[in-house]
Every structure is written in C-alpha cells, then in structure tokens.
C-alpha cells in the first residue's frame, strides 16, 4: 500500500512509551476490548497462569522519551516505511481523514479519537491495561491504545503479516470509536447488562461490525486516493482478520469452544471485512444488536 503523501500529523498522538518488557496479567479495555485481548485471555484461561491485573508492570506516563521528536522524525523522507510508529501514525491520520470527510458528506461532525503509544502498562479511562491486552480502544476517554512491541509480536506469532495488516488493526480500533460516536457501543453495553447470557454474542456482533468498518474505510480511502490498495494488500488485511479469529486462537490452546467467543471466527472476521470492503458504507455493516 502507498499513501498519497508522506506528511505525518502527530497532533492527536500521546507518546507514553518507556521501559521494556511485558506486564503481568490482564486488564479490561472497555468497549473495544482490544483486537488481541482475547488471545491472552484464552491462553491464560485454558493453560493457566498469569494474574488478574497488571500490578507487576511499570505504568507508561505522558511525555515518554520519544514524545518530543515523533513528528520531526516521522516527517523525514522514508520514515513511514522505515518505522512502525510512523507508519501506524500515518495510517491513523488517513483513517481519521476519510471518516471525517464521510461524516461531513452526511451532515455529521466527526470527532477524532486520540492515539496513545505505550509500553508495558498504561492508565486509561477503562482502568489499568497491560501490553498483553493488545491494541484496544477505550470508549470513556475515546483513545486508541497501542503497544508497538506487541503489534510486532502479533505479526510474527499470529501470522498477521504486512503493512496493510497493521492498517487493518488500526482501522478496526477506530471502528470502535465510530460505534461510540453513533451510540452503538452504549446500546450494546445496556443490552449486555439487561441480559448477561448475551454478553459474548453481543460482543461478537460489536467486533464483527468494527471489522466491517475497517473494510469500508479501505474502499473509501482507496477511492479517495488517500491510499493505494492492491490485491496483495487486501490479502494482508484478510489474513490478519482470519489470524485473530477466536477459533484460530483457541485451536492453538487446544480447545475450541464457540460459546466463549467474543470476537468471531476466522471466517466471520474475514467475511465481515469483505462486507464492508464491498459495500463501502456504514449502512452496509448493519446495526448492533442485530434483530
């Protein structure tokens, strides 16, 4: 994939990186729950181990060691291709630009989320989160949280290879932001509270719609010239969507149980992305909860 330009806007970035290594245990990530949160949860639940919080991990604080030079470094020639943090930030910029234009066309105002880079663990409006949760969106503070080290691990260990796989992950998390703006996230949480037996099925619906929104963005961005997407790029996105399917993840732990799914199967996630990619509208992704 290629962007229409190499300029990077860091105005919505909070760089809280600092320290190395992964924190212990799990943290709840709010409405977005993280594209990979289910990975660690399932491995811990099936195999045992880990803790219930991230007390063993130093917390990232605002103003990390790289916060002052991200914009300058990422706006140098070739930086987007060379550095993961520059690429993810650029993808984040383009995702927001496309959704801003799309909302404006329908007479609505799009409020951008913020992007937070952190390492080990971070305090959020949803509580304290460990790197092990993976990329996630927190509705109360309307921020997308990413530990880039874990993002690299995701690609190496779970088969989500390629730059467009990274863009899909960011677009999925911003898809949760769209659900917050449209009221979908709040409606789902109310439905889950009213009927706890539907908590997992409703979570799956929420996650699949975010996958669908990522597909919508892909087509809109390509049509608008923000990015150039080829067949190989599409394959990377589809491969990433399948790699984080609940059945694929559970199979690695040796026990597949659809009743515990929170994000959907590999096929469901692929199909949802393609639905958005082909439909190219928010409406093509349906409503949640489904009737």
Brief description of this entry?
The chain has 291 residues and is α/β, with parallel strands linked by helices. 49% of the residues lie in helices and 10% in strands.
Could you walk me through the main structural features you see in this protein, from its secondary elements to its overall organization?
With 291 residues, this protein is an alpha/beta fold. It has one domain (2-285). It has 11 helices and 9 strands. It has helices at residues 37-47, 70-74, 79-82, 84-105, 148-158, 163-181, 184-194, 199-224, 231-243, 246-253, 266-279; strands at residues 2-3, 13-16, 59-60, 114-118, 121-124, 127-130, 136-138, 143-146, 227-228. A hairpin with a 4-residue loop joins strand 7 and strand 8 (143-146). It is globular and about 50 Å long. It starts with a strand and ends in a 12-residue tail after the last helix. Residues 19-56 have low confidence and may be disordered.
Q: What share of residues are in beta strands?
A: 5-15%
Distance between the termini: 37 Å
Could you give the order of strands across the largest sheet?
2-4-8-7
| Low-pLDDT stretches | 19-56
Question: In terms of structural class, how would the helical and strand content be classed?
Answer: alpha/beta
What is the H/E order? Answer: EEHEHHHEEEEEHHHHEHHH
Q: Domains counted in the coordinates: how many? A: 1
- DSSP summary: helix tally: 11
Q: How would you state the average pLDDT, rounded?
A: 82
Radius of gyration: 18 Å
